[in-house]
What does this fold into?
Amino acid sequence: MAKLAVFDFDSTLMDGETIDFLAVPLGLEEQVAAITERAMAGELDFYKSLKARVALLEGLEEQKVNDICASLPMMPGAAEVVTGLKERGYTVICFSGGFRNATKPACEKLGVNADFSNFLHAENGILTGQVGGEMMYSEAKGDMIVRMQKLLGVGREDTLVVGDGANDLSMFAHADTRVAFCAKEVLKEAATHCVDVKDLREILKIV
It folds into this structure.
């Protein structure tokens, strides 16, 4: 029986927000973090907030971005939960409103089957402050999970979703097991389970 587990990346598989780490060398972490916080609480449109935050990264060297992304801290239990779910027959996928620079190396390391995220646009090795991709909108994760379910032949009863913020709501609508992980109130209300400790291994007790 095919089963699907979809994880958010920032503050779920990874301990923190990629864009906040990227803002540090520019001295803009507080400014960026404030926008992130409001977007995750559902107070700002995700697309607009993403564009506004990425615009602040203009001028950052792409190599610097990749170096920062290569050393992002994984959430405690991230590797174990991926391994444990795969042993239980799940295909494990990551959907991120963040960036491929971060999700690709992390998901390869964790053994996640596939990752979907956005691309930071660069010219001559320097970020332009532009972003593109399939995960830029608040409805993106919901749209993508339905496509994945069709592709894998998995119903909502065999789908597990894990996230922490408002932009995970759209994928929560298509799964019977919905875990709000150290999450914002808006997502907890839509969840079937809440994990309030920073340890992803707790999810293995749910499945």
